[in-house]
Amino acid sequence: MQIYRQLVGKLDACLLVFLLAVSASLVSAEVDLDRMLSLAGQRYGDSGVASVSAWYDLRAKAASQPDTAKLRLVNDFFNRLTYFGEDIDIWGKQDYWATPLETLGRAQGDCEDFAIAKYVTLKLLGIPSEKLRMTYVKARIGGPQSSIVQAHMVLSYYPAPDDEPLVLDSLISDIRPASRRTDLTMIFGFNAEGLWVGGASPRAANPSQRLSKWQSVLARMREEGID
Fold first, then answer.
1. How far is CA 3 from CA 66, 101, 132, in A?
2. Which residue, 81, 83, 109, 82, is CA-closest to 96?
């Protein structure tokens, strides 16, 4: 979550712009299941292999379903499989973006890891990138009258460009329209198509800029069998 605190303060254009460019590499992604299973076994043992196998079975089950069913299946899968944890406790780092294999293998992640895993899985299931946005929000914790706010990331799904999004969240199991998530305030969202700040229109982007964390996620995904 450290990167959130940096970005909310100044929305560092160099970081955000590169997210848009490199996210496009997921558009035609394919999965090498044998490699993923082999690495899961080496790194995480039988439990990791079981998680990857369950994830692959999920994709087979969801492949022919409508988008709404895909959302529900993927959201439920990761919310049930994965326990929330802080990066420092899971990875020994203040801020670490995990690949889907790493999240599956550890069965742990923070909000960014949940969102990344759901985003990648839904992309692999054929949902277009323009319908999905990784969304940084401020989340109010403790009820409607609470003044406690924490940085958080969710995945937003837009049935059509001007429609109200549905929110896939690691904090609750239900997928709800954004209007029913009054505990969340959008800061910015991004996908392979653009960057939205507070619900505004997409910004122009220069794809030559660099973002090391997301670039690292994509590079590790390729090494792990998602290319």
1. 34, 22, 21
2. 109
Q: Are 115 and 166 in contact (CB under 8 A)?
A: no
120 vs 5: CA distance, rounded Å? 24
- pLDDT band (50, 70, 90) for residue 197: confident
Q: How far is CA 99 from each of CA 62, 82, 104, 134, 216, rounded to the nearest angstrom?
A: 21, 13, 9, 15, 9
Total count of residues recorded for the chain: 227
The pLDDT-based confidence of 199 (bands split at 50, 70, 90) is low
Q: Which domains are delineated in the chain?
A: 2-224 (3.10.620.30)
Whether pLDDT at 189 is above 70: yes
- Burial of 166-186, coded b for 16+ CB within 10 Å and e otherwise, reads bbbbbbeeebeebeebebbeb
